[in-house]
Amino acid sequence: MYPIKDTSNCLNMRAIIVDDERLARKELATLLSEFKEIEVIDEAVNADEAFDKINTQCPDLIFLDVQMPGKTGFDLLEMLDTVPRVIFTTAYDEFAIKAFEYNALDYLQKPIQPERLSESINKVIKDFEGHSHPEETNVKKLCSDDQVFVKDGDKCWFVRLSNVRLFESDGNYIKVYFDQFKPMIHKSLNALDERLDDRTFFRASRKHIINLSWVENIEPWFNGGLMVMLKGGEKVEVSRRQAARFKDIMSL
């Protein structure tokens, strides 16, 4: 659909446009053609199609319509294990403000103005240049530089995994600890553990996964276990079964 551009001499961010309206996709693609840093590699008309294309093509950026028939843009992000950078597009300004007032997520109100689009792209480029981009593998582990989308009620965040200090199982949900927030996501701790890079994250017990870079203090605990204090103030018990491996990782 889109020709491959010669981007050997400039920053190249591969983008997918997700919008159920054909004219909206065409207009945005036309606007984006003015930005040499952005290469539009594909389009998707709904969340399910976008899910497949994002997982297959691994774009750096998606332009995502919030309101679409069936699954919304938020539903799509919750389906993804890790999300690329996102610029939301919406015709409903009041809806966007409500959704994003808890986090500095960027969005464009339709009809999209070139000046506003330029501001959003400049923000994304700064973020793109400020983080490393590891080579893709067939089974990609989630590392500290990846970001995840977390939605809890009306609140939503993009969270870089380096900022997540603790995952805690709570029934069929996981509590995600970052900054001063502890939102709940509907995922399995076992499934999450399989995706996380074990050089950064450690399964302390059946209920907890900790970010090793957030460990502040370690003390002996009952029955051969360990008590770990995180920089955020949380205390997490490392089970006796996991204590020996934890000591080895931390070179204790």
Description:
The chain has 252 residues and is an alpha/beta fold. The longest helix has 16 residues, at 114-129. Mean pLDDT is 87; it is low at 1-9 and 134-139. Helix content is 28%, strand content 30%. The chain is elongated, with a radius of gyration of 20 Å. α2 packs across α3 (73-79). It has 2 domains: 13-129, Rossmann fold (3-Layer(aba) Sandwich); 147-249, Beta Barrel (OB fold (Dihydrolipoamide Acetyltransferase, E2P)).
Fold topology:
Elements: E1 13-18, H1 22-32, E2 38-44, H2 47-57, E3 61-65, H3 73-79, E4 85-90, H4 93-100, E5 107-109, H5 114-129, E6 147-152, E7 155-160, E8 164-170, E9 173-178, E10 184-185, H6 189-195, E11 201-203, E12 208-211, E13 215-220, E14 226-230, E15 235-238, H7 240-249
Helix pairs in contact: 2-3
* Shape designation: elongated
- Per CATH, the class of the largest domain reads Alpha Beta
Mean pLDDT level: 87
Provide the number of structural domains.
2
Gyration radius over CA: 20 Å
Order of helices and strands: EHEHEHEHEHEEEEEHEEEEEH
- How many E-type strands? 15
- Structural category is alpha/beta
CATH level-4 homologous superfamily of the largest domain: Response regulator
- Helical fraction equals 25-40%
Low-pLDDT residue spans: 1-9, 134-139
| Largest sheet report | 5 strands, parallel
CATH topology descriptor of the largest domain: Rossmann fold
CATH architecture of the largest domain: 3-Layer(aba) Sandwich
